[in-house]
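Hello again,

I reread your note about wanting to compare the complex against the isolated chains. To keep things tidy I'm splitting this into two emails, and this first one only covers the full assembly. Below are the input lines as submitted, including protein chains and any nucleic acid or small-molecule components. They are followed by the predicted structure of everything together. The single-chain runs will come separately.
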Amino acid sequence: MDGFSIKRLLRRPWLSILSLIIGGVMCYFLCYLANYRADQERQLEDLLENYEIQCVVTDRKGRKADDLRISSRYTDFITDEENGLGMFTDDIRFTKEFAASIEDTKWDLVGISNPNCDEYTDERFGGGYETEVEDFFDSEEMICLMSAKYYEEYKGTEIMLDVVDPYGLALSLGVGEVFLKVEGFHKGSDDKIFMPYKAAKKLCSRITHSISTDTVVFVLKDNSKVDEVYTAAETMLPKVDPDSYTPGYSLTIKDQVYKANGAKLRQDIARTGYLLTLISILGFCAGFLVGFLGTKGETRNYALMRTMGMRGFKLFLTVLFEQQILAFIACVIVGIITKRPLTAAVFFVCHALGTLIAVIKPVSARPTELLRDQE
Amino acid sequence: MEILRAEDLSFTYKNKYQTVNAVKNVTCGFEKGKAYAIVGKSGSGKTTLLSVLAGLEVPTEGKVLFDGQDLSKLNRDTYRRDHAAVIYQSYNLFPLLTVMENARYSMRLKGIKGEAAAKRAEQELDAVGIKKEQYRRFPPQLSGGEQQRVAIARALAAGNEIILADEPTGNLDVANSELVVNMLLELAHKDGRCVIVVTHDLDLAERMDAIYTMCDGIMTMENTLK
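Full-complex prediction:
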């Protein structure tokens, strides 16, 4: 390259600053948008993979999600991988509630299938539990968790509870005396005792042939299969019908937020894509402008260089270098700052193409025009 | 010995509206160590002839021989860089380069840089009467005569054996014109270069070793005065 190119650049400071600023600002904006788009795509990916679409079994009208007294026919359907919803479900939460008492003290005895069933045992909501029993919630043993307040008093001992099914048709038919070994504590209310759901099912069998469950909640394994879940559930758990008077249960899939967020993210990503394309085109135009302004009035000088023996292609490269070196520096800096070197490179290519188009005519000036102009 | 020769040279300008035979069947030779003038009215074809001799245009017919070789078979960019230098009526210095940088430019194209280039440029600038304190000035800060001298220095610094000048004194006053003409004659007679000057000025022409007269594209006369 012509060694005087840098000197020529420095001796046209305003044009050079303009070139640097235009290139730098536009490149920065492009990289910023690219980062934004990448972030949106990450969020979408995270949504698709990690968002938990909760599915709740309710009554047919969709008004009640607890105290449902669902028989095992439905709970088995939910866990059945071959003929039910088992292949679609994850983190299934069953609960069964009883009313219990020790002497005159009333307790809520709740059977839960995993700690996420109740806010007192769910760490996500400030709850928690501690026990030395592995897989406590999957156990069929008669064990329980008391509140921290009572744990110190009863730990390791067996407590005897007088248990009643609170919503049974025959309230006077209690479950009877139940002995539970205190194996840990929870961080919730003092009057709650938690036991494994499978053990609670055994208690139910004392009073009814069909095991009943009070709440059923699960999460979808694959968020993309919502429609398949509705289809698979249709026979046993149809969609909510507010006008229905038929007995039974429905499945509500809470995917509105998931769908809305997904749609919004996809829209954002598409919009950002259009903006990226637009800025690339503007980068081309900016390159053209820089090339046009940079070579304005230089045609005679380029023709002079040709008369002095500079080859046409070398002249073209020299002029292109002069017009692009500052934009190149700006793009390198922006690429490093924004950590998007590839995007900065794409912008630079668009910018350089614009300049290339702009400089073709000036550098093609015929040297003889210099002589002829004087005649 | 002839360093440059035009043989049956013709050049035609063509566009979609007209065809102009600017140079018609011109045959002439130019020797090293001599100064030549090409005179003629405006539109006689003398500048076109100069541009063909400088390798800026390809003749429509005929040929230009440089040192016995057909110029059409040589690289014209290399010919202009290494063998022929052009001096213009309107100086044509690079406005964004200093006097020294202008003088060094032709050497830079030949790959001569650094101390060697600086020394040679200084020699030539000194030879044309440009003072050291003017080296860092830009062309617009010089007078017409000074600019033309810098242009001559630039042509000389390249060391090319053929100097082609198109109306070199056209924009100069009498004193500066005299200076420039003397320089060109020195280049021919003392440096042994071949100097070809296109001019309207018959007084200038008569100081050259030979005059070629052009009229309507035809070389009508050749006067060898010395």
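For quick reference: DSSP finds eleven helices and ten strands in chain A.

B.
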